[in-house]
Design a protein that fits this description.
The structure holds two protein chains of two kinds. Chain A contains 19 helices and 23 strands. Chain A is α/β, with parallel strands linked by helices. In chain A, strands 16-17-18-13-19-20-23-22 form an eight-stranded mixed beta sheet, sandwiched between helices. A six-stranded mixed beta sheet of chain A has the order 6-7-8-3-9-10, with helices on both faces. Chain A has a five-stranded antiparallel beta sheet with strand order 15-14-11-12-21. The longest helix of chain A has 18 residues, at about 190-205. By secondary structure, chain B is mostly helical. Chain B is built from nine helices and no strands. The two termini of chain B are about 15 Å apart. Classes of the chains: A alpha/beta, B mainly alpha. The interface of A and B includes residues 360, 389 and 419 of A. Chain A: Pfam families: ABC_tran, oligo_HPY. Chain A: Its main location: membrane. Chain A: Part of the ABC transporter complex GsiABCD involved in glutathione import. Responsible for energy coupling to the transport system. Chain A: It catalyses: glutathione(out) + ATP + H2O = glutathione(in) + ADP + phosphate + H(+).
Chain lengths: ~625, ~270
């Protein structure tokens, strides 16, 4: 960029006061953003990327933080501005959108009012003008039927639509710079693809610059012109996105790039392959190690699920009568062998988590049968069920939330042993130590509390806890989704290693197609509570038949700027809801066998793909 | 922990004090009516010339005992009812909450009068005059103040039982009893402790109100509330009479509330060291 930069950040440092000491969280970060340019700030949690953005806006707590350096926007140093002038800059010249579209809108005000408020405040419009402008903005972010929706409250909008509203609000004052802090992290892949397209399109139309903060290298490759890689509060590498991906200079960048799961990297591998181990000093991956086939094909499957159906009633009104039903899981059938991983994939609301919980009877299914080692789980009484749960354990998405904050991790790991009366106190302690070693932690960590561990360590603790009773089946519900890429790779590797060692069967519930490709033997794609396609991993990824499977695969961001999609295909298709009226009778579904074990639903329940204009 | 010190001094004072200051509480001395604090009477005297320090130490025992006992009754009843309501998924929860609302909407004073007229004599016959009134007051105050605790516990349970760590333990095969006792209750206890300490203060004040209405202990037993009640007619000439018991109630309530906050933090393993 030869033109004058819109924003230039020079030696920005931010320190927070923790217990009377100043701790630098961002150290001497410098970068510039040119006109109409998109710069990505990428890094793992704790790298200081969000704090950098907050520092630019001067939104860090005033009494306990200290910002030094300079932030020049339009010839003025924002760090030297008086507070009143800075408030003008916020919203007027720099706008910000956040990760959580669900909580950044005020639920008791209509969305039209919230956007108009900004227009009246910053641009001095009359109410009528503001309303007209609001409609124009909502049109701009491609919200269908904008005129009729401005009087709706936020709860009437889905997550993706709310993020559009947030973007419309940010655009209200025609900012020179848009700061987007993980704007798509909380969204499903297909919705994420839409929002990324929208941001790119709007940037062209409005001519604004974008500072895009993310942890996802795939998203960076999709959207950014230039990239700043942050690690431990410092900008370790800055360059054009193409350069950074093609010739990463810093070991950390190399490590980040090699740890990113890439869709399609598993072609030619019959079995799951661990993520390559990465040398911390060079950041280069070691050659992958193949693991042998773990599936016991000759034996009876560990888990056989037939026509599993779970519905919830929605009650409303004065008397609490049923108003409708959520058909969360509808006639789902599959089986799972010893040593095998079946991935359940789909977007939020498709019923994949409910399926996992229904199998364990943590949620009571309506009908269907679940056989564990040939025994019908559905027919068990409460006491027997509690006993059988020993054979199937669960690992949750958020390792912090799934550990009792008041229990030491040693007690937490020993708990399943104590509950099932499998070990005396001394034996339990010994077993805990062994399990901690097994998941790569040190046995003397047993006396600590969960809050003293990092996210990856906590997930290891949860895995140790699940392994304590030597289960046959582990339901892993989004178990690695919340982890940073490098930690994610380690936890996935641990899970694969344990599968080989203990002949575990995994029901791996995930929305992350790239991870699924790496870990699974077979894949089931769920849409609106039904399995629309199920088959061997290579078949599903190499030869997807159902239109929804294809859409899902296409939406996954590709961590390769050279293969960035050229075509703007802006759809605003929303995820459908599985809520049905009370008298709804689900149609009979037929399945077609494409190749051995690869079944596709024939009566297509997904909407057709939007028509693509030829390039 | 200055508040622990203050409370310890108050408790020690009412327990050991009468041994060190062995002045009878009912020794009438008209020559020293309404005397201001002096060496003979450190807290002064009342309108009958009775020594206020001795009366306060004696009455403090009763006031503090009533406060703690009533808190225990209210907290235990409230926790049990709140826990049952919070864990039930069907009919028990609404029924228990109706009962709670019912208790909240009862006119308390007429009810107290009724209870006291119905049971005073029976209890006196069994436990003696002071014991009977003590039990009655504790039960009445505790029985009418458990509702806020129950609602608090229920709300905590409703949110905690949906937490992932509870589901994780359920998935391990834990019984409901274990879920409640080992996992949900310890996590719900922080706010309950704070509510409990507020109950102590409320009970001490409620006892004063009852004494004031002549429904509590007999008039010759100088609980702190009773002392305040007697002092109110002489505020202009003998402010010390009201000031000392008032200060005692104030210090007790304040220090207990601070201790409650401290306990909640101490029970939280996540607090920053």
């Amino acid at each position: 960029m030869t033109t004058h930069p819109v924003l230039s950040v020079d030696k920005l440092s931010t320190a927070f006061r923790v217990e009377r000491r100043w701790r630098e969280v961002v150290r001497s970060v410098s970068f510039t953003i040119g006109p109409k340019e998109t710069v990505a700030l990428v890094g793992e949690s704790g790298s200081g990327k969000s704090v950098t953005a907050l520092s630019l806006m001067r939104l860090t707590p005033r009494d306990s933080s200290r910002i030094t350096g300079s932030v020049i926007l339009g010839g003025r140093d924002l760090l030297q501005l008086p507070d009143a002038a800075m408030r003008q800059v916020r919203g007027d010249e720099i706008a910000m959108i956040f990760q959580e579209p669900m909580t950044s809108l005020n639920p008791v005000l209509t969305i039209g009012f919230q956007i108009a408020e900004a227009l009246i405040l910053h641009r001095g419009m009359s109410r009528a003008e503001a309303e007209a402008e609001t409609v124009r903005l909502l049109d701009k972010v491609r919200i269908p039927a904008a005129t009729s929706r401005i009087h709706d409250y936020p709860h009437r909008f889905s997550g993706g639509m709310r993020q559009r509203v947030m973007i419309a609000m940010a655009l209200a004052c025609r900012p020179k710079l848009l700061i987007a802090d993980e704007p798509t992290t909380a969204l499903d892949v297909t919705i994420q693809a839409q929002i990324l397209e929208l941001i790119k399109l709007l940037q062209e139309e409005e001519g604004m610059s974008v500072l895009f903060i993310t942890h996802d290298m795939g998203v960076v490759a999709e959207i950014a012109d230039r990239t700043v890689v942050m690690y431990g509060g410092e900008a370790v590498e800055t360059g054009t996105t193409a350069d950074i991906f093609a010739r990463p200079a810093h070991p950390y960048t190399r490590m980040l790039l090699s740890a990113v799961p890439r869709l399609g990297s598993m072609a030619g591998h019959p079995h799951p392959v661990p993520f390559p181990k990465i040398d911390r000093t060079t950041g280069l991956p070691a050659p992958p190690e193949e693991i042998p086939d773990t599936v016991a094909r000759a034996e009876r499957p560990v888990l056989e699920v037939q026509d599993l159906t779970t519905r919830f009633e929605i009650r409303g009104g004065l008397l609490g009568r049923a108003r409708g039903r959520v058909h969360a899981v509808e006639k789902v059938s599959f089986d799972l062998r010893q040593g095998e991983t079946l991935a359940l994939v789909g977007e939020s609301g498709c019923g994949k988590s409910t399926t996992g919980r229904s199998v364990m009877r943590l949620i009571e299914p309506l009908s269907g049968s679940v056989l564990l080692d040939g025994e019908d789980i559905m027919a068990l009484g409460e006491r027997e069920l509690r006993e059988r749960r020993r054979k199937m354990q669960m690992i949750f998405q958020d390792p912090f939330a799934s550990l009792d904050p008041r229990m030491t991790v040693g007690a937490a790991i020993a708990e399943p042993l104590v509950i099932n009366r499998l070990a005396s106190r001394a034996e339990a302690r010994e077993k805990t130590a062994e399990l901690l070693r097994r998941v790569g932690l040190s046995p003397d960590m047993a006396g600590r509390f969960p809050h003293e561990f990092s996210g990856g360590q906590r997930q290891r603790i949860c895995i140790a806890r699940a392994l304590a009773v030597r289960p046959r089946l582990i339901v892993a519900d989004e178990s690695v989704s919340a982890l940073d890429v490098s930690v994610k790779a380690q936890v996935v590797n641990l899970m694969l290693e344990l599968q080989a060692g203990m002949k575990l069967a995994y029901l791996f519930i995930s929305h992350d197609m790239a991870v699924v490709e790496r870990v699974s033997h077979r894949v089931a794609v769920m849409y609106l509570g039904e399995i629309v396609e199920i088959g061997p991993r290579a078949e599903i990824f190499g030869n997807p038949q159902h239109s929804y499977t294809r859409r899902l695969l296409e939406a996954v961001p590709v961590p390769d700027p050279a293969r960035r999609r050229e075509k703007h295909r802006l759809s605003n298709e929303e995820l459908k809801s599985p809520i049905r009226p009370l008298d709804y009778v689900p149609p009979e579904r037929l399945y077609r066998e494409v190749s051995p074990g690869h079944m596709v639903q024939v009566s297509d329940s997904a909407p057709p793909l939007p028509v693509v204009a030829a390039a | 922990m200055a508040s622990t010190g203050v409370l310890a001094i108050l408790v020690a004072g009412v327990l050991v004090g009468p041994l060190l200051w062995p002045v009878p509480i009912d020794e009438i001395d008209f020559s020293a009516r309404l005397a201001t604090p002096s060496a003979d009477h450190p807290f002064g005297t009342d309108d009958l010339g009775q020594d206020l320090l001795a009366r306060m130490m004696y009455g403090g025992r009763i006031s503090l005992a009533v406060g703690f006992a009533a808190m225990l009754v209210a907290t235990v009843v409230g926790t049990v009812i709140g826990a049952i309501a919070g864990m039930s998924r069907r009919y028990l929860d609404p029924v228990l909450m109706w009962v709670t609302d019912l208790f909240l909407s009862l006119p308390q004073l007429p009810l107290l009068l009724l209870v006291i007229y119905l049971f005073r004599d029976e209890l006196k016959a069994v436990f003696g005059v002071e014991g009977g009134v003590f039990i009655m007051i504790v039960v009445v105050i505790g029985g009418l103040r458990w509702m806020p605790v129950a609602r608090l516990v229920r709300a905590q349970f409703l949110s905690l039982r949906e937490k992932e760590f509870v589901e994780a333990v359920r998935a391990m095969g834990a019984s409901r009893w274990r879920l409640v006792v080992r996992h949900i209750l310890p996590n719900a206890i922080g706010p309950v402790i704070v509510a409990g300490t507020i109950e102590v203060s409320a009970a001490i004040i409620a006892e004063s109100t009852l004494s004031f209405l002549g429904l509590g202990f007999p008039p010759d037993i100088p609980t702190w509330g009773r002392l305040l009640f007697d002092a109110k007619d002489h505020l202009d000439v003998a402010p010390h009479w009201a000031l000392f018991p008032g200060a005692a109630i104030f210090l007790t309530v304040l220090s207990i509330n601070f201790i409650g906050d401290g306990l909640r933090d101490a029970f939280d393993p996540r607090r920053v060291m």
